[in-house]
Amino acid sequence: MRIFDPHAHMTSRTTDDYEAMAASGVKVLVEPAFWLGQPRTYVGSFIDYFNSLLGWERFRAAQFGIRHHCTIGLNPKEANDDTLRREVIEILPRFLAKDGVVAVGEIGFDSMTPAEDEAFREQLKLAIEFELPVLVHTPHRDKAAGTRRTIELVEESGIEPGMVVIDHNNELTVKDVLESGCWAGFSIYPGTKMDEHRMVRVLEEHGPERIIVNSACDWGVSDPLKVRKTADAMKEAGFDDDVIDQVVWRNPVDFFAQSDRLILDDLDEPDLTATYEGSGVLRGERA
Amino acid sequence: MTITELSAALEERARPEGLAWLREASAAVAADPTAIRSRFPMVGRKVGRGTLEEGADPDDVHAWHIDDAARTLLLVAMGEAAEGELAELYRFGDAAERRGLLRALPYLNLGDRAVYLVDDAVRTNDTRLIAAALGPYATEHLPDAAYDQAVLKCVFVGVPITPLDGIPERVTPECSRMLAALVHERVAAGRDVPAEVWTVIDKYPHAEEIAAIEAELDSPFEDRRAAAERALKHRPGARA
Q1: Are the C-beta atoms of A46 and A229 separated by less than 8 Å?
Q2: Is residue A283 part of a domain?
Q3: Residues of chain B contacting A286 with CB distance shorter than 8 Å
Q4: What is the per-residue burial (b if ≥16 Cβ within 10 Å, else e) of B70-108?
Q5: A260: which chain B residues are within 8 Å (Cβ-Cβ)?
Q6: Sign of the CA dihedral A161, A162, A168, A171?
Q7: Is A287 within a domain?
Q8: A98: closest CA among A130, A126, A122, A67?
Q9: Of A102, A105, A119, A236, which one's alpha carbon is 20 to 30 angstroms from that of B13?
Q10: Which ipTM did the prediction report?
């Protein structure tokens, strides 16, 4: 089984996790920039963090045969610090130009403050400027309202909805998100947000189009093998292998390939080109 | 490799569109040095990322890549203005950009003013950066103690040392001693060392450390005796 985990905070994980993920079928992952559990207070901390996502973490993943990409952005929680918001957004363009940066993110709402609103809008503009997709985090609290507000901001910004994935959905938000034309992401967690059996029901109700699932594994209680466990639950529920492949591989590949920055060219995945010939996944020079 | 050879190798390997982009980018950065800030990150996707030598092992940390050569040519095209941009290019660079920048150092006229970049790269644990940092620029400009420590770090993290530009001429007796001590430590743990360490150790053989390795041949522990044999069999003229 080939797995693309489109949301995994590997900086928080051990080499044991990398090993287990590779064994479960994970070949490619995307690590979104987020907050680290306690607020940073200097722009330099962000620069070092972004650099580690582009350098050290990519190197670590490669040791286990996993291709690491990242998204770069200012998360909503820390966007509430006025000085940081200005300074971090100012240095983002330098990072958004890089290979392997496959989206702007995670951006979005935490407490739905005016500061979060401003950071969200400014980063949607940057996404348009750098022709990058967007990864949006939806709030833990007041999620349905936060999701609706997210869709409004996406519509106002003028970005193509197909370039946006709205993440951390549940049974109550998925319909609005799919109707907006955006992609719907699901973080499969032990206990919170969404689990693999509820995910199967969502897929049965809404189908696999524009739906992606991730483990979101981070520094909290989480499980880096949740994408595989979702695939297994789908299989058990009678989904056929092609639909499973669409959800855990082709959908995230199609979404992030819109960046033109996926680096999959020397990946040891023999049928990758065969499946995607001409679709643009392998755009860029392959010398 | 001279800059002419580098350029010729790139002409051979990169696609015409990539070379055309590079010519345009070189003109842009020559006219306006700040243009390098957007061009430098684009090199991989515009010119290519494969090895510069066809058929070379892409996982060989010493192998030049197409993007290394293209980044070197871009920096050279900036002339004297390159130096002013280096610190920021490195600070904001991803691993591929940093590797290209480090490989370019000997082609720029920098004196010893970029040694801090080599120091930073050698402090990382990224084997690609460590290897790229230890080219002819490091041979010429690193202080002795730093060079010796860098060679020791290479062996420690698994970067082959034979292809390093300064091996074995550049090392001091201290490097030979430290490597012999590392061999002893590894043997005492029942572990292996690469055969190539002897090139450096035997440049200035340190009698005491080598005697300590040889004494492991008589260790009461089987794994240590076996490790000592394995280590010493690669040493020209050793008693194992």
Answers
A1: no
A2: no
A3: 48, 50
A4: bbbbbbbbbeeebbebbeebbebbbbbbbbbbbbbbbbb
A5: 45
A6: positive
A7: no
A8: A130
A9: A102
A10: 0.76
B239 falls in which pLDDT band (50, 70, 90)? low
Chain segment B165-188, per-residue pLDDT in tens: 999 999 999 999 999 999 999 999
Burial label for A205, CB within 10 Å (0-12, 13-18, 19+), is exposed
Instruction: Confirm whether A284 is domain-assigned.
Output: no
**Angstrom distance (rounded) from CA A58 to CA A187:** 22
A286/B48 touch (CB, cutoff 8 Å), yes or no: yes
Q: Phi/psi of residue A70, each to 5°?
A: -145, 165
Domain ranges of chain B: 3-142, 172-240
A237: containing domain: 3-275
Query: Which residues neighbour A158 within 8 Å (Cβ) at sequence distance 6 or greater?
Result: A128
Residue contact B58–A59, C-beta within 8 A: no
CB contact under 8 A, B41 and A98: yes
In-domain check, residue A286: no
Backbone phi, psi, residue A184, to 5°: -110, 120
- Closest in B15, B38, B128 to A287, CB measured: B15
How many domains does chain A fold into?
1
Q: How far apart are CA B75 and CA A249, in angstroms?
A: 39
Q: A192 is written with which tokens?
A: 């919170």
- CATH number assigned to the domain comprising residue A88: 3.20.20.140
The angle that helices A114-129 and A82-96 make with each other, rounded to 10 degrees, is 10
